[in-house]
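stage 2 :: seqdesign
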């Protein structure tokens, strides 16, 4: 199934999130910002993912809702364009720093319970959509990128980008926790 690998990646993200949240130091650990307040806190990393997941996954979900379905689960591999592969790779942890688009920059931080609850609900929505999309060829439906309006993105590529982006900011949050411990 095309969605099997994506579901495995999502499950790894869920486990990584649980470990991250268990390791957040008591007190100000969720809201502490490194670099004299110029860096993002753990909460801001998750809030940014909440914004991006709503915006970007909303576009993917809309494309999936319009897609035709096969009679059986699709097994063809997800194929991305050259640009799609490069952009997904750029979203992975350890690549160059990029400035978040204005609509996705975390502003005020809400309570830990609200931020974490929204993030976990978002993971559940993505999981449900992936399970529902088993009979959709993820190479076929496309959507306009929320950030590059002239660019069309294949649904499978969009999902890869979304998961890579989550890994990127979970890694960032892990780094913040490590910095908080040594301050």
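stage 2 :: out
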């Amino acid at each position: 199934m095309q969605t099997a690998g994506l579901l495995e990646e999502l499950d790894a993200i869920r486990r990584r999130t649980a470990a991250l949240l268990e390791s957040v130091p008591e007190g100000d650990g969720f809201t502490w910002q490194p670099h004299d307040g110029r860096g993002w806190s753990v909460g801001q990393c998750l809030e940014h993912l909440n914004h991006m997941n709503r915006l970007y996954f909303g576009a993917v979900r809309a494309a999936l809702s319009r897609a035709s379905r096969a009679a059986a689960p699709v097994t063809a591999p997800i194929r991305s364009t050259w640009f799609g592969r490069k952009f997904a790779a750029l979203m992975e942890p350890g690549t160059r720093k990029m400035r978040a688009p204005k609509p996705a920059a975390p502003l005020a931080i809400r309570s830990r319970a609200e931020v974490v609850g929204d993030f976990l609900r978002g993971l559940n929505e993505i999981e449900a959509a992936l399970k529902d999309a088993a009979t959709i060829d993820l190479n076929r439906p496309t959507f306009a990128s929320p950030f590059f309006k002239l660019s069309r993105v294949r649904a499978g590529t969009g999902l890869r980008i979304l998961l890579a982006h989550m890994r990127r900011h979970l890694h960032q949050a892990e780094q913040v926790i490590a910095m908080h411990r040594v301050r």
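stage 3 :: structure notes
- Residues 78 and 156 are 6 Å apart (CA to CA).
- The beta strands are 142-144, 152-154.
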